[in-house]
Write a structure and sequence with these properties.
- The chain has six helices and four strands, in the order H-H-E-E-E-E-H-H-H-H.
- The protein has a four-stranded antiparallel sheet.
- The longest helix is centred in the N-terminal third of the chain and has 18 residues.
- The termini are far apart.
């Protein structure tokens, strides 16, 4: 979680990778994130230092299309093809068959298809998150930035 420690760790993995001529998969987490904001490399804890040393970065995001839906987005590709950018994310359904929990591919779509839901439930959820952030002392501008919405939207949601 601390950028300096993350950078040192990634640097050691980089050295190990070069010495042994191997590929290394690093799995990391993101801090708490709202479901309706786009995923970026900056969402990774210690992101700046980690992203400096990785060749490729992917993220798995929750979808507003259903509790069993996720999407895979490619955030960085140093040398390979950029197959799953925000305009072409891989839609995945979480399923359990025969005791085996896994993802089934559902095709590709835009990231916004997974994060933008302007229905009543979405609005209520957004209003609640704005209120919680406001109650926590955040300004309207800070709330807008954190939630990835515009300032006017925050004002309108909190005014109701």
């Amino acid at each position: 979680e601390k950028p300096y420690a993350a950078g040192r760790f990634m640097q050691k993995l980089w050295t190990l990778r070069d010495e042994l001529k191997i590929s290394i998969l690093v799995i990391a987490h993101t801090p708490k994130k709202f479901d309706f904001s786009p995923l970026t490399i900056n969402d990774l804890a210690g992101s700046a230092r980690i992203s400096q040393f990785c060749d490729s970065a992917f993220a798995l995001g929750k979808s507003t299309q259903g509790v069993d839906m996720r999407y895979l987005i490619q955030l960085k590709s140093r040398s390979g093809a950029f197959i799953y950018p925000a305009s072409n994310v891989l839609s995945l359904r979480l399923t359990k068959e025969g005791g085996w929990l896994h993802f089934e591919e559902e095709g590709t779509c835009r990231e916004t298809d997974h994060i933008n839901r302007m229905d009543e439930d979405y609005q209520d959820n957004l209003r609640q998150q704005c209120q919680e952030l406001s109650d926590g002392g955040k300004s309207y501008r800070e709330i807008a930035k954190e939630l990835g919405i515009n300032l006017t939207k925050v004002y309108r949601l909190l005014k109701k």
